[in-house]
TrEMBL record:
GO terms for molecular function: DNA binding; endonuclease activity. Gene3D superfamilies: DNA methylase specificity domains. This is Restriction endonuclease subunit S. Keywords: DNA-binding, Endonuclease, Hydrolase, Nuclease, Restriction system. Belongs to the type-I restriction system S methylase family. One of its GO terms (biological process) is DNA restriction-modification system.
Length: 433
């Protein structure tokens, strides 16, 4: 038994990838012909190569010499591997002739009958490990050079065994992938239910309801008012060079990516000093303010909780707390289909996706009495909490399936079990995760 640093103990023979596959790096992009014999051809770049297959486009083209067109031709069965970006991502080509590939992509072709499909699974095992960070020097922009790929130690069982392993993994991973797809469908259904719960919170259907063109169906007794009549002010977070205030620790400095639909995500949170927070009083936030993403993908809203009372923010709208509308109700309305519809209307014809303070103040919203708002917010919170419990379970199951898929691939390519005798059994059980 041999040990490969990135893979662990291997029962199969081991060798450099170049002993089983011919590795070729693509050509530098050529925007124009260099001589009269050059031809314009479609080509693949790294974004074309996805795990589920190679994306074809006749519109992505560059110039190449007849020799390059011959030597860099992609044919069915070739394994294309990303040299940069998502390093190691790969796909087996199954499409028409006539394409070449640029220098962000490697092509692997079998030597003496080796299986590119087996190599594809080996690369999936590599991609799921931390070894690519070592191999490609994570401190800089990651690149999997041709030499590194060709020198990569991999298990190289006999060709017939390679094909058996690939065939076995095709069947087993397809089963796992179907289960993962079901989990994704369930998460999408929960997202639809969440949207429906938000819509129900800020609307009312019945004999006493009316249809408003911007806010939907509401009670006749609910005033529909522009936000300028409901909230005292709208401020904007730090817009000019917010990075100049970054510190390793200190006061939370909330950015648009922290503002989710209904909550503030601490992941990736930036910080500023207390002195900077004192200096930037207009962008300081307080419990009960509602933050709205103003640029990029504008419109997500979340209430500032006690945890972030006195924090600061960058390039988001700060809807200051008023007396007529509960912040949780206001956030729910902005995140609802009716609120998002007004966000989209404000973007119509705009060169950039940005919401201004003036646009936010012009949004109209239903304003039932505070007791009705509280009742609806409480009901919404109960519905969302129940949905979140279900979502957490589904996400956990999806995570386990991904881990088991990775463990199964690693176990198969390293020879932890005989795929010939394992076919048809529940081989996931007993595989080390």
């Amino acid at each position: 038994m041999t040990t490969i640093p990135w893979l662990g103990q291997v029962r199969h023979p081991v060798g450099a990838a170049r002993h089983a596959f011919k590795i070729t790096l693509g050509k530098m992009f050529q925007a124009s012909p260099s001589n009269s014999t050059d031809v314009e051809v479609p080509y693949f770049k790294s974004i074309s190569v996805q795990w589920h297959g190679v994306q074809l486009s006749q519109e992505i083209r560059m110039w190449a010499t007849p020799a390059e067109r011959r030597d860099l031709a992609v044919r069915t069965g070739d394994l294309l591997i990303c040299e940069g970006g998502d390093v190691g991502r790969s796909a087996i080509y199954d499409g028409p002739d006539g394409f070449i590939f640029e220098k962000s992509v490697h092509r692997a072709r079998p030597i003496d009958g080796s299986s590119t499909r087996y190599f594809w699974y080996v690369l999936q095992a590599l991609h799921g490990s931390d070894w690519l960070d070592v191999l490609c020097n994570k401190a800089t922009i990651r690149h999997l050079t041709g030499e590194k790929l060709a020198s990569l130690e991999i298990p190289i069982p006999p060709q017939e065994e390679q094909r058996r392993i690939a065939h076995f993994l095709d069947a087993e991973t397809s089963h796992i992938d179907r289960l993962r797809a079901k989990r994704r469908e369930q998460m999408e259904l929960l997202d639809e239910r969440r949207t429906a719960a938000l819509a129900e919170c800020v609307s009312l259907s019945g004999p006493d309801s009316v249809r408003h063109p911007l806010v939907g169906t509401v009670s006749r007794s609910w005033p529909v008012l522009p936000l300028r009549r409901v909230i005292p002010a709208v401020n904007v977070g730090v817009v000019i060079n917010p990075s100049t205030y970054f510190e390793e620790d200190g006061v939370p400095f909330i950015h648009g990516f922290n503002v989710r639909s209904g909550w503030i995500d601490p992941h990736g949170m930036k910080f500023m000093s207390s002195d900077s927070n004192e200096e930037l009083g207009r962008s300081r936030v307080y419990s009960g303010d509602v933050l709205v993403v103003r640029a990029g993908s504008p419109g997500r809203a979340a209430v500032v909780t006690e945890e972030y009372d006195g924090a600061n923010c960058a390039s988001v709208l700060i809807l200051r707390r008023g007396q007529a509308m509960l912040p949780q109700f206001l956030s729910a309305f902005i995140n609802s289909p009716a609120g998002q519809g007004q966000v989209q209307l404000s973007q119509y014809g705009a060169a950039q996706e940005v919401i201004s303070a003036a646009q936010a103040l012009s949004f109209v919203a239903p304003v039932p009495n505070l007791a009705e708002q509280q009742y609806r917010v409480d009901r919404l919170n109960a519905a969302l909490e129940a949905q979140n419990r279900v979502l957490s379970k589904i996400q956990h199951q999806a995570s386990l399936l991904s881990e088991r898929r990775q463990a199964l691939i690693t176990a198969a390519v390293t020879g932890q079990f005989d795929v010939f005798t394992a076919s048809g059994r529940n081989v996931i059980e007993g595989v080390t995760v």
